[in-house]
Amino acid sequence: MNANSLIILDFETTGLSPNNGDRAIEIGAVKLENGVVTERFQELMNPGRPVSYFIEDYTGITNEMLSDAAPCHEVMARFADFIQGQNLVAHNASFDKRFLDSELKRISSNYDGQFGCSLLVSRRLYQTAPNHKLGTLINYKGIASKGSFHRALYDAEMTAKLWLAMLDDIQQQTNVDEVPFSLVQKLAKTTKANVAKLFANYVVS
DNA sequence: TGCCAGGCCCTCTTTAGGGCCTT
């Protein structure tokens, strides 16, 4: 596993649940190396059936756009190569993990990284934020945005910026030189009340 | 057949219910 790099990813899908037959329609991702975006991945994919008007409206991805796209299995095979050997991050990772697992299982593929969740971290770190939607947190942190959320690569880019902002905030509260992925994972699992205690254990005197 | 997400997290909790977040 590469300790200095990370993939931040986001799926657009036909709905909320692969267990109910929902499929991925777009994957967007950026690779962060030492805090800098060094690679990008973005592809639409044809799920083999029409998407609802709600999804067309929500994402701006139309059935016409998907009719020209490569099928899911082709795109996901390329994406599986892209994420090889990398830890992964998503906003509400349990959602994206379900679709990643489901789509890769269909092509008998796999990945070896751990998932980090920017939503869970933000709930510990930004307890006074109005809410913990991606768009709200981007505004809350004063990160510049075009406001055009709900496309995969754009949301992945914004999640990456949020992730870097959170690493900065963790660093300032702990005085560590570099925030290890393992510390962020511990933060996501600790209770809100124990955040200060967790950070105190990392203070360099 | 009929149902239709699911994991996290709070609280009027743990023998449960409901809001948040993702599409």
UniProtKB/TrEMBL annotation:
InterPro entries from the UniProt entry: DnaQ, Ribonucl_H, RNaseH-like_sf, RNaseH_sf
Top class in the EC scheme: transferase
The keyword Hydrolase belongs to this UniProt entry's keyword annotation: yes
Annotated ranges, domain Exonuclease: 5-172
EC number: 2.7.7.7
PANTHER family the UniProt entry points to: DNA POLYMERASE III SUBUNIT EPSILON, EXODEOXYRIBONUCLEASE 10
GO molecular function, one term: hydrolase activity
Native species: Colwellia marinimaniae
Official protein name in the record: DNA-directed DNA polymerase
Catalytic activity: DNA(n) + a 2'-deoxyribonucleoside 5'-triphosphate = DNA(n+1) + diphosphate
Matches recorded under SUPFAM superfamilies: Ribonuclease H-like (SSF53098)
Keyword set, alphabetical order: Exonuclease, Hydrolase, Nuclease
